[in-house]
């Protein structure tokens, strides 16, 4: 499958997910204003963290090894049996931890024990989320982009319907509850769609411990969990710092601009994940790898520049549409954030080489270093420039990350 075709289907799926997410943000902005949007970011960070931890963080590993083993029935069967065992054990353990700490998490993240039961529901949902992640990763590994898009579109439509219903009944609590339920709906939609695929076999639902395959997956688990743990925790630390310095209302402005970035970049990060991770994993010679990376920059970098310029030109309208007139102060924050977005995509296209080639140690070290450097830059720049300093920190940190990934990619290709 070509990048253009993969991009077409991933764009449809991403648009559906984006619209579903924006409905939730709009509901929260309408129900609770900037402060509610700031706290929504805290809850979504917890959700992102638990969603990855639910399956042990092996989705990228499943994608990589399915892409490599799809023509080797014996190794593929061993891989998937080990992956399902790994995911189920990890989700049960994580669900138990979240249940035990639900009160503390509610108080720490949201400053209110009123949301304790919501976190308990999220904990119980971990097994369903893990199984959904497993199914989507297998489909992605087979590069069945059309089926993957169908699952995500239908799941997003059902999530919007659920969000509208629950928010009318339970208001802000209902909107947050819909976020959790929307993750489980992917399993309800995904399992029947996967069973109808030409490559599905009943043995793919068999669980079995396999030491060799589990160790392979564990390397990806370490990489994914490092990234999944650091990003939400760093963002939580940034929000808490900004709240102490400027108050939760201004955190809402920062969160609003960050959500706009996340929304439009979702189109590109989804295409990178769906197309380039399995493609790079299955490609081993230097010329082909270099060609894939060149194609990535040829198609995706101009796309992110155009999208960023469009968002900047329409920032006032975008802010009013997605949030409300109360968020007009956020318009001054867009320029450095959008510059950081371009640098982010430029660096991501190279960083996926570390994932595809299982450079575990280097990936983990780089994630830790650049997560901590971002937090440090936020402290330094906000002290000098105020709230917009957090956006300056974002852009400068990704400039450093891009330079690092250029060095890694050149050394890896040079060694082939």
TrEMBL record:
UniProt subcellular location: Cell membrane
Membrane topology: Multi-pass membrane protein
Record key words, sorted: Cell membrane, Membrane, Transmembrane, Transmembrane helix
Transmembrane segments: 7-31, 43-67, 79-101, 121-142, 149-166, 172-194, 215-236, 256-276, 296-314, 334-355, 362-381, 387-408
InterPro entries: Poly_Biosynth_Transport, Polysacc_synth, WzxE
Keyword Membrane in record: yes
Protein name: LPS biosynthesis protein
Species, as recorded: Dyella acidisoli
């Amino acid at each position: 499958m070509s990048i253009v075709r993969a991009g077409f289907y991933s764009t449809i799926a991403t648009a559906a997910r984006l619209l579903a997410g924006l409905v939730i943000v709009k509901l929260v902005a309408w129900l609770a204003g900037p402060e509610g949007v700031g706290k929504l970011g805290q809850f979504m960070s917890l959700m992102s963290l638990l969603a990855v931890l639910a399956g042990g963080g092996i989705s990228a590993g499943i994608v990589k090894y399915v892409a490599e083993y799809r023509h080797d029935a014996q190794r593929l069967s061993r891989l998937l049996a080990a992956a399902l065992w790994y995911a189920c054990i990890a989700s049960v353990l994580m669900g138990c931890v979240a249940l035990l700490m639900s009160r503390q998490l509610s108080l720490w993240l949201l400053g209110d024990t009123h949301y304790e039961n919501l976190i308990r529901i999220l904990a119980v949902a971990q097994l369903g989320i893990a199984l959904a992640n497993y199914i989507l990763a297998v489909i992605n590994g087979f590069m069945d982009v059309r089926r993957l898009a169908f699952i995500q579109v239908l799941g997003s439509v059902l999530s919007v319907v659920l969000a509208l219903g629950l928010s009318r009944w339970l208001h802000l609590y209902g909107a947050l509850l819909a976020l959790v339920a929307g993750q489980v709906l992917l399993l309800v939609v995904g399992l029947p769609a996967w069973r109808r695929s030409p490559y599905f076999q009943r043995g793919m639902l068999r669980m079995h411990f396999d030491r060799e395959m589990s160790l392979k997956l564990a390397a990806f688990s370490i990489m994914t969990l490092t990234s999944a743990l650091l990003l939400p925790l760093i963002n939580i630390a940034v929000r808490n710092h900004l709240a102490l310095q400027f108050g939760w209302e201004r955190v809402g402005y920062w969160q609003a601009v960050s959500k706009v970035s996340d929304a439009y970049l979702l189109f590109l990060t989804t295409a990178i994940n769906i197309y380039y991770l399995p493609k790079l994993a299955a490609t081993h010679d230097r010329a082909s790898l270099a060609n894939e990376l060149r194609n990535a920059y040829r198609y995706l970098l101009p796309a992110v520049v155009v999208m960023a310029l469009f968002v900047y030109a329409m920032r006032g309208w975008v802010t009013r549409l997605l949030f409300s007139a109360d968020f007009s102060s956020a318009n001054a924050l867009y320029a450095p954030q959008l510059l950081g977005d371009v640098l982010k995509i430029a660096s991501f296209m190279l960083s996926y080489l570390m994932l595809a080639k299982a450079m575990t140690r280097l990936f983990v070290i780089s994630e830790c270093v650049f997560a901590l450097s971002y937090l440090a830059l936020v402290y330094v720049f906000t002290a000098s420039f105020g709230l917009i300093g957090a956006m300056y920190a974002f852009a400068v940190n990704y400039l450093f990350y891009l330079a690092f990934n250029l060095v890694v990619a050149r050394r890896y290709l040079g060694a082939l």
